[in-house]
Amino acid sequence: MSASTTQELFNILQTKQRANDFIRLFDQIEGLSHHVGGLDIGEVLSSIYGDNKPDWVNHFAKNISGLSSGIIGDSDMRLLREVREMVENSTVVKVEINFIPSSEFISNVISTLKNKYDSMNFIIDVDTVDSLESGAIFYIEGNVIDLTVRKKVTSYLTTQDVINRYL
Amino acid sequence: MKEKLPVYLIGLDNFNINTFLVFISLVVPLILIGYWLFYIDDEENIENDFFKNLGKSIRKDKGSKNKKESDTGDTEVEKSAYSDALKILDRARADSLKILGRAQIKAQGLLDNTYVISKENRKKLEDSVKDIYEKQSRVLDNLSEELLDNYKIAIEEGKKENIRTLYEVTEAMKKEAIQGVDELKDVVKKETMGAQDALEEKITSEYAKVDAEIKEYKRSKVESLNKKIFELLSNIHSEVIGQDLDQIKHEKLILDLLDREIKKSGLKINKEI
Fold first, then answer.
1. What residues of B are in contact with residue A94 (Cβ under 8 Å)?
2. Least confident of A9-13, B38-42, B111-115
């Protein structure tokens, strides 16, 4: 397995929720490493996620054959462990927003951050706040990026001398 | 002042001794003639007391005449009238005799004095007259001076009285003027205070009116400003956002803002390798 596969698998996770789901799966599989014989992966997934099996599991299963057969070898476990380590070492970016964002939006946010900080891995923690006005607030390692429309309008009024121009 | 004598002495210098002698020489013979006509038959008593004999001779004459008339036997009326006439005549005669007697006594005195007056006496008399004149002049001078002094005193007193009166009048006028000024001041003060009260009331009223107008203007202005602000925000919103937002646009807006902000701010992240 190459590093690109590990990065690809990590990139599939994207959000904190999905990353946590992955960690729960990894922990379950790791806990069953002494299990004799093959695992019933479907039963394991059901025990973890119930009927709401995450969609990323299928992507992982395509790259990790043991997740399909139930026989998880050492290479598979090593790959899962690397992904987990990437999750643990990633930068969690909290986003407050007043609607449930699309996966494309999450991907674009990560892409935007990666364009600036290419060497870093990001996990997006989405917090839906209904009372929030249009826009979003980003919290990145102690930095706050207020992208609400009100804030931007205020900034615009201040920096563009709108009061004198219009009043 | 000494040139003229008092009025009662005017003409005394004309009544000189010569005039006096002429007067005596005319009067005395007339007296002697009268005496001779009435008492010629009693010449034996002439050498006695002249005045006593003169009265007796009159009574004797009257008694003898009454005796003669009663003897004639006229009527009683005639007697009475005659008697009355005689009484009047007797009284007139007695009076004239008394006058003549007094005149004679005075004449006699004057004659005696006349004979006594000599040149020396005349000079004394003139000196006396002169003394009297000078004395009178001095008296008059003193009187004049006294009158002048009294007049001066009276003038001074009058002047003082006038000054005092003027002072009192001035004080009264001053007091009246001050009182008038005080009254005027009170009136002015009263009017001023009244005007001030009216002014304050008017100012208060005007202030309330202006305050109400300002509040109304403020309310309308705020309302207008609010409208303008809403319009402005709408314009800004359109300018900043560009168009109405659906979720796709909203997400795109956030991504654009995030990209712009990260590029602009140069965000520092500690985990950056």
1. none
2. B38-42
